[in-house]
Amino acid sequence: MTFNFFINLVLFVIFVLLVAQSKRIMQWSLSLRVMLGLILGLIFGSVLQVVYGEGDATLLKSVEWFNIVGNGYILLLQMIVMPLVFVSIVSAVAHLHSIYAIGKMSIMTISILLFTTALSALVGVWVVNVFELTANGLVQEGQNVSVILEDRISQLGDMNVPKMILSLIPKNPFAELVGAKRTSIISVVIFASFLGAAVLLLKKDDPEKGEKALLFIQVAQAWIMRLIRLVIALTPYGIFGLMTKVGAISRVSDILNLLVFVIASYVGIILVFGIHGVLLSISGINPFRFFKKILPVLAFAFSSRSSAASIPLNIEAQTQWIGVPQSIASFAASFGATIGQNGCAGLYPAMVATMVAPSIGINSLDPTWIATLVGVVTLSSIGVAGVGGGAIFAALIVLPIMGLPVSLVAVLISIEPLIDMGRTALNVSDSMLAGTITSQILRKTDKSIFEK
């Protein structure tokens, strides 16, 4: 075991060095190196699983060490999320010409997020009916239902809309900056917006002090952005580590047991990506160029399964590759990580509800029921931010509101990681879409950057 373990580590290091050499020798761009890391990691991990077999002790020990690279990269990104969001939002608001522009930009961004969530819910309903999926055919582990869902349901507590809204208001901004609550990102956005607005007002009341405050913010932002570029340079290696883990430990049996649901989910995800492309085209943006530019960010979101950890890459891509102003990119990335997630809070709960409905005698094709479901899913996508997000939480909010039992879909938790990768990529795509379209509507996009 020890010998094989060290061989695995040596091979892992060799592949990491190969990814590194693609920059030094072949002068590959970051996008190409990210894709190289993704492909090599998936191949290497899959080969290891074939060689050792699922659940082998040597394989699991190797993956534990591989995680130092993959999970270490995620931790580095999470480390810079709060400073980035805080400084970016303060700077964005402070540089606006009018305090009223904050509301216009925020409302437009959130409206796009919620609109696409509603469309995602419709896609979820359509996919389930086309594939004729029902909860009855999936519940094979009913005896474990209460155990599986007990912890997740308890975390929802008695959360309602008023409590959810109050939970977003930062009582202690310093605690929010260290992620004290699940709603900390939104709370930091709110606090930073007020702080930026205060700078705007200070510039009017005392121009000299206002300019000094603005200069301090600019220096802080430049400092944080340099840190971000330092961490982002490690993306190819982080992706390689993450995809190696995915290839090595993905349970083939889980995929086969619920293969139809997995396929239906990814069909829905692809369709929503297509809707994103249509919306971009309507807005006068080339969707093919857009997706080509953001592919490295989607690759990271896919492998990390974390919308929040993707925020730094998200903002960097919008500003440096698409030409969206820092202010709009920061708002879109921050709100998009918690509100109106197309995959986790739109597509998935709609699919689950549509699957469960026939089991209690509800016609899932009834227009009134579909309209109600879409409305509930869209509104609850805001509420998910109040309970920490996640597709399972979204489903646990939507199902009771629609009068549907939650226990019938507990078995889907077993394949969550497989579907969550695609859903997270869709979430991140939507936040970038919201920023890009908002920038386009407000005529703030730097076309020279996008056309490069």
From TrEMBL:
GO terms for molecular function: L-cystine transmembrane transporter activity; symporter activity. Its main location: membrane. Gene3D superfamilies: Sodium:dicarboxylate symporter. Keywords: Membrane, Transmembrane, Transmembrane helix, Transport. SUPFAM superfamilies: Proton glutamate symport protein (SSF118215). It comes from the Bacteria. GO terms for cellular component: plasma membrane. The chain crosses the membrane at residues 6-22, 34-52, 72-94, 106-128, 184-202, 223-243, 255-282, 327-348, 369-386, 392-413. It is found in: Membrane. It is a multi-pass membrane protein. PANTHER family: L-CYSTINE TRANSPORTER TCYP (PTHR42865:SF5), PROTON/GLUTAMATE-ASPARTATE SYMPORTER (PTHR42865). Belongs to the dicarboxylate/amino acid:cation symporter (DAACS) (TC 2.A.23) family. This is Uncharacterized protein. It comes from Bartonella rattimassiliensis 15908. The lineage of its organism: Bacteria, Pseudomonadati, Pseudomonadota, Alphaproteobacteria, Hyphomicrobiales.
